[in-house]
From TrEMBL, chain A:
Family matches, as PANTHER family: SAND PROTEIN-RELATED (PTHR13027), VACUOLAR FUSION PROTEIN MON1 HOMOLOG (PTHR13027:SF7)
Annotated InterPro entries: FUZ/MON1/HPS1_longin_1 (IPR043972), FUZ/MON1/HPS1_longin_2 (IPR043971), FUZ/MON1/HPS1_longin_3 (IPR043970), Mon1 (IPR004353)
Protein name: Vacuolar fusion protein MON1 homolog
Recorded family membership: Belongs to the MON1/SAND family.
Function: Plays an important role in membrane trafficking through the secretory apparatus.
Regions of compositional bias (Polar residues) in chain numbering: 1-16
GO cellular component, one term: Mon1-Ccz1 complex
Disordered: annotated segments: 1-22, 55-92
Domain FUZ/MON1/HPS1 first Longin residues, every copy: 132-255
UniProtKB/TrEMBL annotation, chain B:
Family from the record: Belongs to the CCZ1 family.
UniProt domain CCZ1/INTU/HPS4 third Longin: residue ranges: 355-445
Source species of the chain: Brachionus calyciflorus
Domain CCZ1/INTU second Longin: 201-330
InterPro entries the UniProt entry points to: Ccz1 (IPR013176), CCZ1/INTU/HSP4_longin_1 (IPR043987), CCZ1/INTU/HSP4_longin_3 (IPR043989), CCZ1/INTU_longin_2 (IPR043988)
Protein name listed in UniProt: CCZ1/INTU/HSP4 first Longin domain-containing protein
One annotated GO biological process: vesicle-mediated transport
GO cellular component: Mon1-Ccz1 complex
Domain CCZ1/INTU/HSP4 first Longin residues, every copy: 12-130
Classification via PANTHER family: VACUOLAR FUSION PROTEIN CCZ1 HOMOLOG-RELATED
Pfam families to which the protein is assigned, alphabetical: Intu_longin_1, Intu_longin_2, Intu_longin_3
Amino acid sequence: MSNTPNKFDQLSTNSDTEFKAESNDENFIPIYDSLHSNNQSPLLHNFDQVLQLEEDYDETESKSSASGEPKFVLNQREFDENELNVETKSDLTEINEKNSSQIFSDAEDQDTQNEEVDLPVEQNDEWRSQSKHVFILSESGKPIYSLHGNEVKLIAFMGLLQALMSIIECDNENKLNFVVAGDHKIAFLHRSHLILVCVSSEPDKCVEQLELELNYCYNQIISVVTLSLIEKIFSRSHNYDLRNKLTGTEKLLTNMIHRLKSDYGMLLNCVNSYPLQFETRDQVSRIIAQQITPIRSVLFGLLLFDNRLVSLIRPKSRNIHPVDVHLLVNVITGFDTPKSVEFTWYPICLPNFDKNGIMYAYISHLDESCKTCLILLTGMCDEEQSIELNECRKRIQQKMQTQNIFQIMNLKLKDNSLKLDQIGVSELKHFLFKDNKVFQYFVSDYGLPYSQSLEEQQRIFDMYQKLYHKLHNKTNSLRIIYMQKKYETILGWQTSNFEIYATFSPLVTKDITINAINKLLEFTQKNKSKIFLSSMPTLPR
Amino acid sequence: MRNELNPSQISLAYFLIFNSEYGLKEGKEAEKVFYYYPPDEKIEKQVRIAGFCAGMIRFTQTFKSRKPCEFVHTEKIRIIINQLDENFWIVMGLNVPISPNKVYESDLISDQIYMSILKQIYKSYKLFNGIIGDCLEQLGHIKLRENLKIFFDDYIENKLNVHDSDIMNTFNGLQFMSLDRNMYLKIQCLLNLLEEKVSLVEKVVVMHQDQVIWSGLEQEDVSSIYGYLKDLVIKNSSIISPNQSTLHAKFLVDDKIQKILTSTPSTSNQIPNDEIDQEYFEFKKIYFEKPKHEQYYLIPYNLAKLTFFIFIPANQTFKLSLLKEIDEVLAKPMISFLQEIAELQMKRNMNYQEEKEIKYIYFNRLNLAQKSTLNNSKDMPKHLMTLISQLSKDLEGCTPSGEIFVKSGKDYWIACKKSDLREVYVVVCQKNANLTLIDEEVKQLCNTDFTNIFFME
């Protein structure tokens, strides 16, 4: 087995996720429930189904926690419990010792730091002028992550963050949400022993966006450590240095934060789907479904092209949340995996699937350009499994090759039928369409002058981002927003079926915009089967 | 303002003024807090809140923010912070209202509205007391604390109304009375005459009931004093026929001084008139910011619905004779103005139509003129008023002109238009409307109600 050394090659630290799946933390509020209340499942055909599934989900979860029923409880079989207990105990005592010594040395460090010419990071001009900061710390103020600057050098600063937070929380169980100072906005998120803080001076970012970003960061951490492990660690030693469990995955956080800057799927809580002829997509799905159905341990099969979803094979009764898909994509884009690597195993917790359990993602690039990526999610991972999945992957690869699918997928990039000019309204410069039934979206190409400047495209993203949060405001949710601004007129419209965000030239009349929107709806209706994934085969599990 | 706390309404949690340079020594932290409301709060909590705000301010400055910390959103309390003078900070904490299903509705509190209210409170303080830093220098910190307590206790208990605030609070605009050109010229003539005959008169504001006809003040000053003048007018609205009004009633002075004003020099048995100086009348002294920080006497002169507010520099001395001179110049012409205005209003009322379905707010940032048919904000859902203030913030981003149309809920539409410094907000409640229909409605409104005002199409 020449490939076995690759197993866990990226995350050796994660091998210490030896714990039982625990779902007894009732206090935990599902992360995305508050933010995207109805958007539980991405690829369903109607809301009823969504609700149904949510119920299913709850049931299976409670069942699994109660009886340890092995159907979807992951990661249990592999580890010997006794071994686990001994290991964690010794691990923790070691950590405690380390921590106490660290506190002393930190304190000393600080003292000397202040005296030295070398200024603390928070007095560094460049650091202070960054347009965005993300800090993650533990409840006791221990640094875990900082987007800019070494988090260890920010220990005093993180202490201040923790203190500000606790003053508010001491008072009548209050909660600190965010702070505004001129153009600066600072969002706080305190969840399961972690404090996440985002400081932004980007004038176009609204606070709701920062909160959304912090939620993604939180999920990123859960996806590495799992919620139950966090609970366990911090209930035993609240001074624990969580960086021990995150080593090597900091760049996933950084990658996540960068992607959030311009990823429409992450903004809209949608899967990024890759437009493809219905027939081709169907072909691909059937190939994958056929191959993975016999392998009982595989729960999900995803095929991505250009980091966008081409096909998703799932068990009949379970679905995968868009946020979880984004976390998977983040693994692919976040690590610079050498292209020669045939496949990698990556242990991951999908917080919206089971926030306490670990799954194993078998990740493999199928073509030479590395654009096509196959992800198989399984409940276990061992050598036997690797061999089995490798065989399976090879068969998929072969079939796709003989049916010429790689070529077709590459060609689709140059397809003209989905171009903006097909709509035929010259005032329409750009649009974004979200289908609220299937939780997928379509984004058009940019008309002039936007097509020529990345900055302008970013500006459009930021405007849509503002519209999105205005439409979805908790107390003042809006149906329609029409804004005539200096450089463009923008429109946001939400109904129970869809959301539209569109950019027009500045002096457009309302009649033209309404006409354009009608044409746009026709267009998306006509191309629905191309743009979105629908009626995917499911696994009989 | 001390009403029974209704959790579904925005209410005042606390209000404080602190100086970040005081109370730095351990054990003396309480010196930091110069004023705190409610007064019976434990000193530890007062210190904790002041300390938190000071910490937050320092924290935000770490990131080179152009402004120090302004708003702190917590689940239960919204904190609004404003810098007064170098080291003085004013802080208002508001209880976030709770919805019937026990959810904190943070979005019902508009930052902009309450920041304006906070700024307005200090403007009123400044009007009568001057800049707080100067007060500290002149009075020392113990006296200043007393002084703050007197002013703010009264303001918070009697004037501050946090739960009925709306977008009008952010405009701080004036209601102007529109007159025809002739009337306007006549009033101008009279003002010139007054300044000519009574040389001490420096600035004048003319009001008809609570509407401004003429203001000789700088924009900033008039917006700070307008509320006070309005209160004064309402408090003293007399029903005496203008012909019979006595001198003391005209100058809105106390009964105590009445005797002096009504007595003739010969019958006076107390102090001879000539020796009564300006202090005796107890006219309010007021600070204006522009063109320079200076103190003035505010002398009101009222006949029925018409009031002239006359400002005389506080460093000048004047005697009873001055008041008589003013009376001589103003009394007669004012009586005829009153008649003419009454006739004008009669004519207007004839034309006045039934109350419309469409409500609007108009505001001109240049002259602070505001006009609103949304006078009773209670007849609108609370969240719409918050929405309007959010939209007003969004409209700032549309330069120099732009428009925003939004549909909220099922039937409410809000259309905002901006042209340079003029803004109009229109609320339409109509079932099954669409964007074009609302656009038509708004255009029609602009054609009837704002004929002279240009709005970009």
